[in-house]
Amino acid sequence: DGFQSGWYSTVGAAISLTTLVNGIVPHVFPLLDCLILSRARRRKAQKVGSYLTQSDMNDAFVGAEFDLSIRYPELMNTLFTTLLYCAGMPYLLPMAVGSFVLRFWIDKILLLRYYKKPPAYDEALGKQAISWMPWALLMHLGVAFWMIGEDTIVRSLVINPAIVSDQTGNNEAESLALYERWKARSEAIDGIGMTPKILRVASFPFFLAFIFVFMGLVFSKTIGRVLWFILKTIYKKRQARVGPARKWLGAFTAE
C-alpha cells in the first residue's frame, strides 16, 4: 500500500522505537558495571579471604573488552535506518544525532575508566564504513521521493504540462492533452505506481537527485576506476622519468 497513514502508525512507530532502544540499551550494562557493580567488588575486596590470589582480584576488577567491530555495525545500522526513513519521519534525525553524541561520550569515558586496553586497530573498518555512506544517500533519495510522492500524506501539485509546450507551438490545450496522454501511457507501463509519485513537484527533485547519485556511483565503480588506474600509471611513469625528488640540505655550519 505504500507509505500511507497506516504505515506510519504501525511500521513507522516500530522503527522509531527500535532506533531509540538501539541508542540506549548497548550502554546500560557497561554503565551499570562501571558505576554500581564495581563498587560492590571493591567492598568485597576489603573482606579478608574474598580473593585468595592477586590474580583473582585483578580478574575481578578488569573491565570488559572494547570491540570496535561491534561499534561500527551499530553505528551504520542507526545511520542507514535514519537516512532511509527520515524524509517521512524527520524526528529520526535528532534521535540519530543524540545517539551518536551519547555513544561518543559514553565510550570515551568507559575507555578511560572501565574497558580493557583495546588492541591496535588499523584504518580498514573506517574506510569500509565510509565506502558504504554513498549507498545510504542513494537509498535515502530513493525512499524520499516515494514517501513525499504519496499524495495522501504530502499534498503536491503535478508537474506543469508546459514542459511539453515546445512540441505543440505553445498551444496550452494541445500541451495539456499531450501531457495527459504521455502521463497515461507512463502509468499504464508502470506496474508499481511510481509515475504519479515522480510527476509531483515535491518529489521530482528527489528523483532527479537519485538518478544523478546512482549514475555517479556506477561511474565511480566502473569507468572511474579504470580512469583512476590510467592516471595513476601515467603519473608513476612521469615521476620515474623525472627521477627521485631532490632533498634540500641546509647550509653546513660549525661552531
Automatic annotation (TrEMBL):
It comes from the Eukaryota. Keywords: Membrane, Transmembrane, Transmembrane helix. The chain crosses the membrane at residues 82-106, 206-231. The keyword Transmembrane applies. This is CSC1/OSCA1-like 7TM region domain-containing protein. It comes from Bicosoecida sp. CB-2014.
